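ok here's the first one, seq then struct tokens
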Amino acid sequence: MVICPACHAENPDGTKICVKCATELPKVAASAVKRQEGATPSKGLRMKDVGRDMLDALWLVLIILLIFVGFWFQVTNGTWHFTDKEEAKLLQPSLGVQKAPASHPKKQVQVTQPNVIQPVIKKEPPVIGEKPAVEFGSAETFFQKGKQQYDTHHYQSSFNYLKQALEIDPTYAKAYFGLGYLYSRFDMNDAAVRMYEMALRFNPDHVDSINNLAMMYYHAGNNDDALVLLQKAVQLDAGNADCQYNLGSIYLEKNQADEALQAFQKAVSLRPSDGSIYNNMALTYEKLGKKQEAQDSWHKVLQFSKSSDLLQQAKTHLDFLQAQG
């Protein structure tokens, strides 16, 4: 509307003469209308640009989200979480010293060529236990709790307790030993070796870690390094039957029969009812050509062993020796 400067009457936009008093209306009104009409499209254009920018931003966020989702899906192999098997790839009953397997065969030994053949180690499926609540205590306390959980087949809880022991004391060798044993029993050999090496870093005289690390080398075919470690182990603890037995097994593997026999004799004096030791003693006597001593040892295998493989091997070798006269 245009206001008349004389009578103050309202006139429609674009009117040149006041409809009431015929006074000429100011031209500024028309120019104002033009400015107003020209301003409207400009405002609409700015709103349109803002909307387009917001839409572009939303698309960018969506693309980034899709990239992240795809990356996470690939990392977790489509499971979206780590499986119980991955978390619980831990041990088998009896958290103790890892003993070298008896030298009985996977298959029947040929009578004419008796050999030391390694058996398959049996592994029980893991049983997942609940994670322990936050507790307080010494590193030794948590190690013992880890051992108790292991003995009851709660392998995840055992693992967690051993980790807690190391949080209290990062130099606690026994906790590294326990973790190494857990890993090795489930064929996580690289991790097991690292744990045994860490145990020996903080306690170079930890015999159980020396023995188990030697057995890792032995099963990997590295008999020389295994032999050096076991020689050190028996120097530190000559009364350790496992170390003596394992030392004898490596000597026998290297065809050093005299040294093997000495180690087996020490082992059997410490553990006189172990059929596995008598089994390897019998094989050693045969290598040395001592038939009577070999027969006596095979009879001890029949007396003490509960392994069907060892019992069959003993019977086979006895029949062969007796047939020779």
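and now the second one, same deal
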Amino acid sequence: MKKILSFYLLSSLVFSAVFASSYILHRNFESYKQQKKIYIDLNQSNYKETPKEFYNNFETELPSISITAMPLKGLKAMYILDNEIDSINQVKSLLRKSILDNPYLMFSEGNLSQIYYAERKYDSAYYYARKSFNGLPRNAIHFAMLGKLYANKNHIDSIIYSYEKINKPSSGGIDRVFMSSMTNFYNALNDSLKQRVLKHVIDIKKRSGTQKELQYLTDQIIVGEEEFQRALSLEEEGRIFIQNNKFNESIVKYKEALAIRKNNYPYIQTIGLAYYNLGQFKDAIKYLSILENDDIPLDPVSLYAMGISSFNVGKQKTGCQYLEKASKFGQENAKVAYLNYCDTE
């Protein structure tokens, strides 16, 4: 009798285990099918115009995180936020619950901060902004939200301090947020803070290379607004001269602008190409080489100009190397020149 009871008990346990395992596998499979769409929407940051039935049937417990490690409750909150304007309390509740599912991504905290900011509940916005920034300080969105809250309170020194807490080098996104704040508030800072900011601005300018937006923002602080505007006027005059093939005059204007906005790579490139068009090949090489020496990749037109210029100063091997590079970018003139002067097969 005991053997029969033991057999039935064991069978019952095995059946329960198999049933539980099948149930979990089924829920995981259903979640996987949902997550193919979720993955696309997440990459595009677009949750709008999604049928309510889809996100209402989200599997948020087994599993509780997506294939990207995003908490599924948090992602469900994003769908509701974008499709149901009257469900903000449900959105906040889901986001708060989702923090426990993955407390390391700061996805939910960052979104909660933005929601509370939109509701003008600044204390709650600040609480979650601090959490998200301390958890992932190199995230530009987290830094931007915290900076916005500090700016509202005119705590500009806290923006600077937070920027300095980020391990360097910071990303271009964070640099842009920091520079946007500083161009608005720099003139109102005391001398000590100005010196701290200026040091960071100079570093950002060096890192930003050919990023036009960051170059604009940094130069406004480094040279001052008045001189910056004068450089832009000179640049415009130089551009008009180039359009009219007046390359000597354009070089004069661009060099004057470069004297104000030092190390401006687009200005340096334009001067180099203007010299090329004048047939002054040594000067063309001199200016275009500045970019290469500072690890700024030459575009196909500049590579072609360097190739032809090198030929004209007696450096055929170097010229062929530049023409070959330009050819690989599809530069038609470079292809023809390479075939005529370099292809020995």
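notes on #2: Residues 2-44 form the longest helix (43 residues). Residues 80 and 99 are 17 Å apart (CA to CA).
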